[in-house]
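ingest -> validate -> predict -> emit
validate: passed (alphabet ok, no gaps, 385 aa)
predict: started
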Amino acid sequence: MRSESQKVDDSLPRGVLLASAWSWRLLLIGAAIAVLLFVVVQLRLIVVPVLIAILLSAVLMPLKELLIRGRVPKWLAIVICMALTIAVIGGLLYLVGQQVRSESGVLRHQTMAAVESLRAWLTGPPFNLSDRQIDDGIRQITDAVQTDSQVLISGALSVGSTVGHFATGLLLTLFSTLFILIDGEGIWRWVVSVFPKRARAAADGSGRAGWMTLQSFVRVQILVAFMDACGIGLGAFFLGLPLAVPIAVVVFLGAFIPIVGGLVTGILAVFIALVYKGFWFALIMLAIVLFVQQLEGHVLQPLIMGTAVKVHPLAVVLVVAAGALLAGVTGALFAVPFAAVLNVMIGYISTQAWKNAPPSPLAQRSRTALWQVVPAERVRRAKLD
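emit:
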């Protein structure tokens, strides 16, 4: 005899049944994502440095493997990679600090002159503003910029503004990068062992495909960011703008946010040209920034990126905007690589590509703890013995 619930289901249209079935499943998935985001936010001082370490490892891992293939001992290859990373970051900070310190007096002088010139222009025709109106306008603009910048800079995943938070994040980033370089394969084997046995082949294959995509993305972004920094930085240098080196460094860092970052940081050079050199220099600097961005978008990205990272430009803009709203600058930085890796992993799983791949030992291995994972090299030696 049919139950009452079955009779009710039979009386409903098929569309309503499908909609209700999809609804509770989507609500359950949304709740799981919300809980995950809540946990990530609570552990942001750990999560963000680890994510930065993963990006750094994606750059350093090919260098480490190249050194090992060149008969360099593994420990020495890791030391070279870490020393090179610290030297590059320290060198950039030193160059920026050196130029800011050397030009601080001139900048103070030019800033005061530029402010007085702007005030004289606003008090004259055709504006004829009073000093009080100018001061009120400056105060309103300052308040608006501070309010908007808090949303961008102090997003949900902001690491913190204190020196202690910065130092903690820096140490966690360096240690995480070091251990990924030392035993990244062993860490990944433990991650795969957490999955059910029949899902390990798909998890292993999709993760490795995502890792290759991340490596390609980071290498391309470093090259594109370097070219953006060179183009805009050299333009600022030849125009005689102050702080040409800090401008190039800011553009280099901003270019890691594809499409949006290079353009936004390039506007800084235009603003500096307008304040310290005048309208025509600012117009020339704007033309340089637009030319560099067009060269990046239509030549460098398609030529260098190729088919390694298949993310549509519209998707990039939307993902960056969503990441910035949810997590500020941190979210904008990680949004595109996360979307690219997720896109490749979902594509790998949906096409069931792991079924045609060679069987992975991870799919057959029983679940083990992280400290019990035996390195592959030791296993091979034991078999030879």
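The two ends are 69 Å apart (CA to CA).
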